[in-house]
Amino acid sequence: QKEVEQNSGPLSVPEGAIASLNCTYSDRGSQSFFWYRQYSGKSPELIMFIYSNGDKEDGRFTAQLNKASQYVSLLIRDSQPSDSATYLCAVPGRDSSYKLIFGSGTRLLVRP
Amino acid sequence: DGGITQSPKYLFRKEGQNVTLSCEQNLNHDAMYWYRQDPGQGLRLIYYSQIVNDFQKGDIAEGYSVSREKKESFPLTVTSAQKNPTAFYLCASADRDIQYFGAGTRLSVL
User: Fold this and answer.
1) Which of A42, A44, A98 sits opposite B50 (nearest CB)?
2) What confidence tens digit (pLDDT) does each residue in A48-95 have?
3) CA nearest A46 in B: which residue?
4) Host H or E run for residue A56
5) Nearest CA in chain B to A91
6) Which among B109, B110, B108, B105 is positioned nearest to B46, based on CA atoms?
7) Cis (ω within 30 of 0) for the bond into A14?
8) B66-100, pLDDT tens digit by residue?
9) Which among B36, B99, B100, B106 is the top mutation candidate for probing chain A, defined by the most A β-carbons within 10 Å of its own β-carbon?
């Protein structure tokens, strides 16, 4: 089992809809979780991080963490075509919190 | 203007050649990282450094070397031993466990 797993997509949603991106992780001891957005040909950009169970909201973005089920989700409300990108989930490595383990990303397409 | 600067943006390597990718940060971060990204793939860790004059191998260190002589700088050398170097190389620095990325260097083989 990979340490961090994401559905590669693409996930296609119409403009204005809610996009839901999911990530599962294998290390029960993980304490922090990160979501990065990567536009095609560009570098990853941090959009959300979450440490505690429950929801964390920032503008149109909500991160949801369920440690018991070992998944973290990213919800994007009122999706815009500019949200079309690959979204990477990352968690610290088992052997060092200095290292992040990245999922392979989910590609999101928002249709105008 | 604070940030992480990678240069060059594009780099071409000839057979048997070593090339060095530059990464400079002015964020006063202690930790710095090098990742490799292949098309359609996630990021794989090459090397990381938590402090000046110290660095550790990541998951795919073979064929690469680094140095950390200054807090601001963490150059990566892709040696001739790396037989498949074509990829997008990303440098990051971290404030505690939160990593921020430079714009990346795209390396190709001539």
Assistant:
1) A98
2) 999 988 899 999 999 999 988 999 999 999 999 999 999 999 998 877
3) B100
4) strand A54-58
5) B97
6) B105
7) no
8) 999 999 999 999 999 998 999 999 999 998 889 99
9) B99
What is the DSSP code (8-state) at residue B27?
S
C-alpha–C-alpha distance, residues B62 and B76, integer Å: 12
Tokens 């964390």 sit on residue: A56
Which of B50, B58, B101 lies closest to A44 in CB terms?
B101
pLDDT of residue A97: 67
CB distance A102 to B43 below 8 Å: yes
Distance CA B5, CA A73 (A): 31
- Chain A positions touching B42 (Cβ under 8 A) are 4, 88, 102-105
Name A109's Cβ contacts closer than 8 Å, sequence gap at least 6.
Answer: A9, A10, A11, A12, A13, A84
Strand intervals (E) in A19-105: 19-25, 33-38, 45-50, 54-58, 61-66, 71-76, 85-92, 100-102
B98 touches A: beta carbon within 8 Å = yes
For residue B70, the 8-state DSSP code is: B
